[in-house]
Amino acid sequence: MTTENNLRSIPQPPTKFLVGNLGDLDPENAIRSMTGLIHQYGDIVKLSLIGRELVIVGSQGLVNEVCDQSRFKKIVKGALGEVRSVAGDGGFFVSLEMGMTIG
Fold this sequence. Notes:
Layout: H1 30-41, E1 44-49, E2 52-57, H2 60-66, H3 78-87, H4 92-98
Antiparallel strand pairs: 1-2
């Protein structure tokens, strides 16, 4: 089990006032931008995008870790919560989305 002393900060590119890391993502090719960040900073990268935080994982091992429902809880809010009440937890679609990796 990880102790508090072993925790490290998630690497993040330098941010700019108000827009954070928005300039680090090419809107024409966001996947290539994220792949470049993974290669530069490692298999997990944090981005700040206009007041919101996004964590990118770039290996299948990390995707498996964060998709482990026994250790992490899914939080479904807003419109997706309404869709979930009709369609259930997504089954096939959730597994496709969560199974994607960059790298």
